[in-house]
Amino acid sequence: MNLDPKTYEKYAKSHAKKSPVLKDCACAFLVGGVICCIAEGIYRLYLHLGMPEVNVRIMTPVTIVALAALLTGLGWFDKIAKFAGAGTLVPITGFANAVVSPAIDTKAEGFVLGVGAKMFIIAGPVIVYGTIASVIWGVIYYFLHNGGIL
Amino acid sequence: MKELLIDFLLVFAVGGGFCVIAQLLIDFTKITPARILVSYVVAGVILTAVGIYEPLIKLAGCGASTPLTGFGYALARGVEGAVRDRGLVGALTGGLTGTAGGITAAMTCGFIAALVFHGKPKT
After folding, report:
1. Residue A18: its pLDDT value, please?
2. Where are the domains of chain A?
3. B75-114 burial string, b = 16+ CB within 10 Å, else e?
4. Is A141 on the interface with B (CB under 8 A)?
5. Which chain A residue's Cα is nearest to B8?
6. Cα gap A107→B79, rounded to integer Å
7. Does residue A91 sit at the B interface (CB-CB below 8 Å)?
8. pTM for this entry
9. ipTM value for the complex
10. Which of A3, B40, B93, B112 is most open to solvent, judged by the fewest CB atoms within 10 Å of its CB?
11. Rounded to an integer, what distance in angstroms lies between the CA atom of residue A85 and that of residue A74?
């Protein structure tokens, strides 16, 4: 095939990667949306089966966490995450993966300082700062509540 | 049937929307995924405190509760209930009580997975 530089440039441009941001966002939107819809389906299923709503609110994320843990163990989670980007990171699946993945990978370092410690390498800060934020809000809420504002 | 479809579309749009915001942060800034998770949980607490998140939960159900901002929502709601029940001490107990299920499930699953599965050598 004979190509002059200009035609080649055109050809190369047409085959170059399209703006990855757009594709990344589409994948994240799609996978994230699907995960939330699965959660919603599980939520409604549990309600339909007669589970009290207080428990459904706990058991729905617990089920998603368990599913994400299974997929992580089987090695499928990473493959989906590679495609989904933030789509698997932001739902509670990302939190589950952040716990389970290091737990499996650090087995060789032992169950105390390996599995037990390293499972919190990312989840730890999430829990720490989330809890601190909730303590601050709790104190503020106490005064607002007692002041009759809330 | 039409209502069900609209419900799920809202769940999809809101849940997917949270993911797109995080994806944009990853693509355009140097924020690491770990920082995104931390920011999302803290943002969830703040959005609940200012009263924005509750309507979003009512609107989109699991579309708002499944992203990690929903974890922050559970922390904030837990603390509110505990403060109402037992006063200022509730500020210390409510958050983790509200999220105990998810955290304990993650720990238990992590431990079981470590027993059952073998890690891959890092590439």
Report:
1. 59
2. 19-93
3. bbbbbbebbeeeeeebbbbbbbebbebbbebbbebbbbbb
4. yes
5. A37
6. 35
7. yes
8. 0.90
9. 0.94
10. A3
11. 19
The encoded tokens of residue A136 equal: 């601050």
Q: Tokens at residue A130, please? A: 């989330």
Rounded to the nearest angstrom, the minimum Cα separation between A24 and chain B is 7
Task: At A61, list the tokens.
Answer: 């994320």
Judging by beta carbons within 10 Å of its beta carbon (0-12, 13-18, 19+), is residue A119 exposed, middle or buried?
buried
Query: In chain A, what percentage of residues exceed pLDDT 70?
Result: 91
Question: In 3-state terms, what secondary structure has residue B67?
Answer: strand
The yes-or-no verdict on residue A12 having pLDDT over 90 is no
What residues in B contact A130, CB-CB < 8 Å? Answer: 38, 41-42, 44-45, 71-72, 75, 95, 99
Q: Is A58 in the B-facing interface, judged by CB distances under 8 Å?
A: yes
- Return the amino acid letter for A109: E
